[in-house]
Design goal:
Elements lengths: L13 H15 L5 H8 L4 H28 L3 H15 L7 H11 L4 H5 L6 H16 L2 H7 L6 H15 L10 H23 L3 H29 L17
Length: 252
């Protein structure tokens, strides 16, 4: 089932819907992308690693903003109490002690200037479009669809378990301190994914709603895949770096 466009046309039980959602991840999550494979094989140059960290920062930075949009639309106080933990995870108690700050530490640990990263001015156009599309989706689609789009976190621990050991083993300039962002993420992602999955399975109670949550997860997988497509195109061989984007040969 690779299309998923009519997976719920006859209606699904909760267990069947969960199976379809997990199949979306198995087929479309970005741990299957060639760029990720190159990373875990130790085949990326330091410049390519820098480009990945710089562009991925744009995605990391938008996460608490999209979660704030979801919070604003949720009427259930219990839902809000659970969901706001995501913002705390990324912003920290003071705005700069959470996941975003730890991702910046990763980027600067790879040799990038902090201002170049946080300004996002050197990000690829495709990165900006992908991240903007994700924020727009969570702002304008139904609450159920917005929650379902977060279910890529079901598969996050897998990609981290592949990425972190490989980066430490195959890139001598990468340290555990550089990768501190990933230390807490598997536990956080599992907690958040369990909550979101339970919410989706409870509220996707018609074939139409079931299909909408499947489509939402496909969309989110496409966002993450498109970001890696853009990196491969811009910083592969030959490179196709667009005007205004990060150019390793020009320094930070």
């Amino acid at each position: 089932m690779s299309g998923f466009h009519d997976a719920a046309k006859n209606g699904l039980t909760a267990s069947q819907l969960e199976a379809v959602l997990r199949q979306v991840g198995a087929e479309r999550y970005h741990n299957r992308h060639p760029f990720h494979h190159q990373m875990t094989e130790g085949a990326l140059t330091k410049s390519q690693m820098q480009a990945w960290a710089l562009n991925r920062y744009c995605y990391q930075a938008v996460i608490p903003r999209k979660d704030a949009m979801i919070l604003a639309r949720a009427e259930d106080p219990a839902f809000r109490a659970a969901w706001r933990k995501r913002i705390e995870d990324h912003d920290g108690e003071d705005g700069w002690s959470g996941g975003i700050a730890k991702w910046l530490k990763l980027a600067t640990g790879l040799g990038l200037a902090a201002e170049d990263v946080t300004s996002e001015r050197l990000a690829l156009p495709a990165t900006r479009f992908a991240v903007g599309a994700y924020l727009s989706f969570c702002t304008n689609r139904t609450l159920l669809e917005a929650v379902a789009s977060s279910l890529t976190e079901l598969f996050s621990p897998v990609i981290i378990s592949e990425r972190v050991p490989a980066m430490l083993a195959k890139y001598d300039y990468v340290t555990k301190d550089t990768l501190v962002y990933f230390a807490a993420r598997p536990q956080q992602a599992s907690r958040d994914a369990d909550f979101a999955l339970a919410y989706v399975l409870e509220h996707a109670d018609t074939p139409e709603r079931q299909q909408s949550v499947i489509n939402a997860l496909v969309f989110k997988c496409n966002v993450l895949w498109a970001m890696l497509d853009a990196l491969m195109h811009a910083y592969g061989e030959p490179d196709h770096i667009p005007p205004g984007a990060f150019r390793p040969d020009e320094g930070s």
